[in-house]
């Protein structure tokens, strides 16, 4: 995987649509604050779907996209709750197990929401698909993608209002990596290329001409024989 291209492509996509991207990012933050985080998982699914359509269809994000996958509210809320419990138990014993739980969840469930949004998978199937894609060779590529994602998101939480840039940037990197590792980006590029309807080549045309001439001469010879 070309990581430089991954970052540059995501950055350019965000900058070219900076207005709608900033608006939907800010709107999601307001919703999360108002609902005390309850709508965070399901609006994240809508947010990711909106940016995925931006990547695939060049469709600009809209605030209404945040509510496009409300059917995922319960499974994503349940997953988030279980993840918090697992991490809390890890920190109750020692600090290291807590960080280990965070790292494992971030790695194994990295593509959970993309799969649930893109292929409409359930929670269990989404987790299985995410794990399979995360452990797909070369696994080192996945480690690098997760590190890039975490670093960018960490910058957003450490600098005032930086999340308005870092959240969409990190999300676009996740989406691009998902499409690249599943092979969907190559399939979509191939299907987007026009198939040219070409005629016969010069050699084929010459051969057809020679064949036609030979057939005409043969027919003329047969006519002369019949006349004689």
Summarize the topology:
Blueprint lengths: L2 H14 L1 H17 L5 H18 L15 H21 L1 H14 L3 H7 L4 H12 L4 H20 L4 H20 L1 H9 L9 H26 L1
Helix pairs in contact: 1-9, 2-3, 2-9, 3-6, 3-9, 4-5, 6-7, 8-9
Description:
With 228 residues, the chain is mostly helical. It has 2 domains: 3-192, no CATH class; 198-228. The chain contains 11 helices and no strands. The chain has helices at residues 3-16, 18-34, 40-57, 73-93, 95-108, 112-118, 123-134, 139-158, 163-182, 184-192, 202-227. Helix 3 (40-57) crosses helix 9.
Share in helix:
over 70%
Structural class of the helix and strand makeup?
A: mainly alpha
Point out poorly predicted stretches.
Answer: 196-205, 216-228
Largest sheet at a glance? none
Strands, total number = 0
Determine the mean pLDDT: 85
């Amino acid at each position: 995987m070309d990581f430089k291209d991954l970052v540059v492509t995501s950055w350019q996509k965000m900058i070219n649509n900076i207005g709608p991207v900033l608006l939907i990012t800010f709107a999601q933050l307001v919703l999360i604050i108002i609902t005390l985080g309850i709508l965070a998982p399901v609006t994240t699914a809508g947010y990711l779907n909106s940016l995925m359509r931006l990547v695939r269809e060049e469709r600009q994000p809209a605030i209404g996209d945040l509510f496009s996958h409300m059917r995922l509210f319960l499974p994503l809320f349940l997953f988030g709750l279980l993840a918090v419990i697992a991490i809390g138990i890890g920190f109750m014993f020692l600090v290291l197990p807590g960080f280990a739980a965070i790292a494992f969840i971030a790695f194994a469930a990295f593509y959970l929401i993309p799969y649930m949004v893109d292929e409409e998978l359930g929670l269990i199937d989404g987790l299985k698909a995410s794990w399979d894609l995360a452990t797909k060779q070369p696994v080192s590529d996945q480690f690098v993608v997760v590190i890039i994602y975490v670093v960018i998101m960490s910058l957003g939480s450490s600098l005032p209002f930086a999340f308005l840039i870092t959240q969409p940037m990190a999300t676009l990197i996740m989406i691009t990596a998902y499409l690249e590792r599943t092979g969907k980006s190559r399939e979509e590029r191939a299907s987007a290329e026009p198939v040219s309807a070409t005629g016969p080549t010069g050699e084929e045309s010459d051969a057809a001409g020679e064949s036609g001439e030979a057939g005409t001469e043969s027919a003329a010879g047969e006519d002369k024989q019949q006349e004689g």
